[in-house]
Each structure stands twice: as structure tokens, then as C-alpha cells.
# Entry
Amino acid sequence: MRACVVGAGLGGLLAAANLAKEGFEVVVYEKLPYAGGRFTNMAYRGFQLSTGALHMIPHGEKGPLGRMLRSLSAEVEIIPSQPQAMFRIGGRDYEYEELPSIFPLRDRLKVAKIIAMLKLGRGAGSESYRSWLERQIKNEIVFKIADSFTGWSLSLSASEVPAGEVIAQTRNINKLGGPGIPAGGCGGVTQALVEVLESEGVRLLLKQRVETIRRKGGVFEVLAGEKESFELVVSNAGPKATAQLAGEILPAEYRRAVSRIRGAAGIKISVACKKPMLSHSGVLFTPEARRINGINEVTNAVPELAPHGEHLLMSHQRLAGGADVKREIELGLRDLRELFPEFKKYCRVLAVQVYRNSWPVNRAASGVHLPPATPVEGLYLVGDAVKPEGWMETDGIAAGVEEALRHIKASY
Ligand SMILES: Cc1cc2nc3c(=O)[nH]c(=O)nc-3n(C[C@H](O)[C@H](O)[C@H](O)COP(=O)(O)OP(=O)(O)OC[C@H]3O[C@@H](n4cnc5c(N)ncnc54)[C@H](O)[C@@H]3O)c2cc1C
# Structure
């Protein structure tokens, strides 16, 4: 049985590798000259920058992506971040468990209660995370901590994400642990998956844009330069682009619903440093910064991402719709200079990358749950618009691919 995968981003590569293992004859079309989409490396001045991600996997080797890579025998070592996270408040860095101690006594118990509620997964709902917090406490720094967490990990403010989603995500963090950094960065994962595809005989066609997907005589006709027929199509192009490719074979109501899906946008600043700016490989959340939500220094775990003796620092900030991008970048750079007094002496900015529109941080904002099966039998979606509740970023992509495979196995 023949399967077509549209797009060789992480979602497409995972789907293709799994389908090949299930016995499908798989062809992957990728319009760009490289595989990996927003999750691979870009060599620049001896540094391994990335096309998107901050070289981190949300739950390290224990989450859905780590589990799937193992099940595919993809050779990737994932190094746990140590500690998982720190919070810079009032010029000092605190671990998560230490946070209650920074609050006056009257709020300390409330903060401890919030942490316990997040851990136990209590109080899930569709109200925003911010309004859920406001019902527990009135304390600006709590709201800033919440914004820095959702800004870093989801590119959303706490007002833009449902409380139920954050609570489910926190439950998964408590169960599986925090982030890990793949050896070789994002490119290490992509390379290992491409090797799996090669060993499974998958045809990976680069610089091949899929133009249309049509249905004829019970099969799909995919036009990408030439026409080819498939029993199954898995699209990693994102729901909006897929709806355009498939056109009228999808019901108008579905296409309208998909066109309204909101994504998440952000700005990443990659910085070269002559000495480490952080003493750890976890995330530094920066609730008091103007714009930057968090920072990592992945070379503290994977030194080969920078030339010998240098370090790679990356900051991330959410980009609100309609914001003045130039000003947001200026404010982000100002944050970096203020967060690190030695910035001017030891660091230089390598790249400022803006992610929005058709190359966003997420094609569907966390909290939007689109199922992988479309109304057309045999046409499925994978990628970061298809994340089940509680799963973020690339672990969400792997969890979505798992769900798509369950459907496909039940139907074929
Ligand atoms: C700044 C930033 C920081 C991030 N940090 C992290 C992080 O640290 N950890 C983490 O887990 N996630 C992170 N993410 C999110 C993560 O990078 C993305 O969710 C993930 O890479 C998306 O993968 P995907 O497969 O859904 O889509 P994509 O990577 O976009 O892949 C889709 C592919 O389909 C191809 N395509 C589209 N249309 C066609 C067509 N018609 N024909 C052929 N090919 C087509 C595209 O060229 C692309 O290669 C970050 C993202 C950004 C932008």
C-alpha cells in the first residue's frame, strides 16, 4: 500500500518512518532543499544555529518524542537539562521549588497551594490561565512568572492559553520531567530520522513541492511535478496549507474552520559568548525582563554546537499579533544587555530570527486541539497544529503522530 507524506518537518519524518515500519511504501515530498523544517541545524560561523527550535525536547528522553525515537531505533542521545529551570527574580536565580520563599508570608501559602494544584491537575477549565491564577492570588510577580513560562514554551501570554492546557502540561512535566538537549541539537534528531528513512527504503524527495491533492477512483492523486497515486496521504504542511492543497475534496465548513486557526509567533536571538553566561543547561526564565521570556545555553550540555572555547546562548520572546517587530527586537536586545552585565564584553549577536505567518513557532496555538483525521478518509494531518491536550512542542508532534497512527492502523 502506498503512502505519501507532504513535508519533511519533524512531523513528516516521524510519520514516514512509522508508516514504513508498518509496511507502507512511503514517498516524502519536501519543497525545501533540506529535511527537518523548523527542527534542524543551520551552520553559521562555526555555530549550529537552528531553523526554529531552541535545541530542546520538552520532556527529554522520557516524553513521547524520546519514546518514539527509541521505538524507531533512531540513534539520538538526549542529555537531560540540569536543573530543569531557574527563575531570575530581583537579580537572583531560584529553582522552581524555591519560588514560595520569595513571597511575603501572606502569599506564601497561596503560592504553595497553586503549585500543589498544578501538580495534582486540579481545577482544569477553559478559562485562561491568567484568570485562573487571578482567582487564587493577586500578586504581579506570580502573573509575570506565568507569562514567562507560557511565553517561552508556547509563545503565548498566560491570558492566551486555557488553564486546563497549562495544568495538563504541568502534570506531564511532573510525571516525565523537564527538557533534554539532543546531541547534535535539532539536526541530530533530523539526521537520525533521515537515516531511519534510508534504511526503510523511503523515497525522500527534496525540492519537490506538492501542488495539489485530488481524489480519483478511490485513490489520491498527488501532483508534485509529476502525478502519483497513493492510498494514504499524511500532510505535515499544516492545516491551512493542506486545505489549500486538497481544495474541494475537503468540506467547505472544515476549510473555513481551519482558516480560522490561530498560530503562535516569536523572536529568537542567538548569541555567541566567549565565556558561559549561565552555569547550567536548563532554561532561565526571566519574568522581570521587558520582552524576553527565557534563555538557554545549550552548549553547557552539548559543547559541539559552538566552536571550541565559545558558547551558544539563545533567548526567546513571544511576539504579540500586530506588534512593531523592530521595536520588539530592540527591547529583547536591551533585556539581554541588562540581564548579563558582561554582555558587551563577552558576547556578540549572531542572529535574530522572527517566526510568524507561514513559518511560526506553532501552526496552532497550544490549547487548540485539531484531530489528525480529516473528514476525507485516508487524508491525515501531523505536525505542531495537531497536538493532543497537555503535550507541547515536539513532544506534542510525536503524541499527534501516535494518534494518527492509531487511526491509520485501525482503518488499513
Ligand atoms: C523560535 C522557535 C523556538 C522553538 N523552540 C522549540 C524547542 O526548544 N523545543 C521544541 O520541542 N520545539 C520548539 N519549537 C517548535 C518546533 O520547532 C516546531 O513545533 C516543529 O519544528 C514543527 O515541526 P512540524 O513538522 O510541525 O512543521 P515544519 O517543521 O514546519 O515542517 C513542515 C514541512 O513541510 C514542508 N512543506 C510545506 N508545504 C509543502 C508542500 N506543499 N510540498 C512539500 N513540502 C511542503 C515545509 O517546507 C516544512 O519542511 C520552536 C519553534 C520556534 C520557531
